[in-house]
Design goal:
Elements: E1 5-11, E2 14-22, E3 26-30, H1 42-45, E4 49-53, H2 72-86, E5 91-96, H3 99-109, E6 114-120, H4 127-140, H5 144-159, H6 165-171, H7 173-176, H8 195-204, H9 211-217, E7 221-227, E8 248-253, H10 260-263, H11 265-279
Parallel strand pairs: 3-4, 3-5, 5-6, 6-7, 7-8
Antiparallel strand pairs: 1-2, 2-4
Helix pairs in contact: 2-3, 3-9, 5-6
Protein name: Proline iminopeptidase
Pfam family, one: Abhydrolase_1
GO molecular function: hydrolase activity
Length: 284
């Protein structure tokens, strides 16, 4: 088993932490330094040096934090500061779910610093449109057991005293996981969410984000991974956006939902490493 190291990077009034695990080419995973290491396999960490870096959204809120601290540009500059602190000339950049937008923005701003871009369970549309499309996809799917499980978890959430961001995500479990009864609470143990930033990052920040324009501006190779049963960001929504990417590889994992790197870690690792090997002539 690889040994994990935690580093800290102070940016403005935020102490950003990052976990460093594994060996090989540097891969920065945008998000929580606690949550994301739990979703990537030990096998992958034997092939890549995986750095799971906090965004400001995963730093406990303090009185010094204001809405002005949460902008796309500041999040992108935080990633760049992390890269510099690691001494990495180029990085493999990984963004899962909402963090895929941050990864794309970094790749646009620092094209010479990203060798490969990995987007996992990302949506090409934002705002109310993605909620509408995801709801319709779920409603039209014939999955009575999954829908029954969702009713139970949502009722439990509405009746509980915990209305936090994490509790809400856990209540959506049947729409997020291939196993409709999967309990993701251990993945979230000890994870703190910034109360000021959460509503911005998962709310207004990317509400008008133009994925087509982002893809047109990105020059590096992109690996786009989905779970077939993702009822948050359905894979089919990407069809009319694929043409905007100059070098795009798509993989859909048949027994996964929103987190294929965990749900089908063996298949995910194999596909990702094959892609990386092919893109750099088999030399990692």
């Amino acid at each position: 088993m690889s040994l994990q190291k935690i580093i800290e990077l102070n940016r403005d009034n935020f102490c950003l932490k990052a976990s460093i695990d594994g060996s090989g080419p540097v891969a920065i995973v945008i998000g929580s330094h606690k949550y994301y290491p739990r979703t990537f396999s030990e096998n992958l960490k034997s092939k890549l040096k995986i750095i799971c870096a906090d965004t400001r959204g995963f730093v406990p809120a303090s009185p010094n934090h204001t809405e002005d601290d949460f902008t796309v540009d500041k999040l992108v500059q935080d990633i760049e500061a992390m890269r510099v602190s690691l001494g990495a000339d180029k990085i493999i950049l990984i963004g899962h779910s909402i963090h895929a937008f941050m990864a794309m923005e970094y790749a646009r701003a620092f094209p010479d610093r990203v060798s490969h871009l990995v987007l996992i369970a990302s949506s090409p549309i934002t705002g109310q449109e993605i909620y509408k499309e995801a709801d319709r996809y779920f409603e039209e799917s014939v999955c009575p057991e999954r829908k029954s499980a969702l009713q139970i978890t949502m009722q439990r959430f509405s009746e509980s005293g915990d209305q936090s961001f994490v509790a809400r995500l856990l209540s959506f479990g049947p729409r997020i996981w291939y196993d409709a009864n999967f309990d993701a609470s251990k993945l979230w143990e000890g994870v703190e969410v910034n109360s000021v930033g959460a509503g911005i990052i998962w709310g207004s920040m990317f509400v008008d984000y133009n994925v087509a324009n982002a893809l047109k501006a990105i020059s590096c190779q992109i690996f786009l991974a989905f779970g077939r049963y993702d009822y948050f960001n359905p894979p089919h929504l990407w069809e009319k956006y694929r043409e905007h990417a100059s070098d795009l590889t798509v993989r859909i994992f048949e027994k996964s939902a929103h987190t294929p790197q965990l749900e089908e870690s063996d298949n995910f690792d194999e596909e990702l490493m094959r892609w990386l090997s092919n893109k750099i002539n088999g030399n990692l």
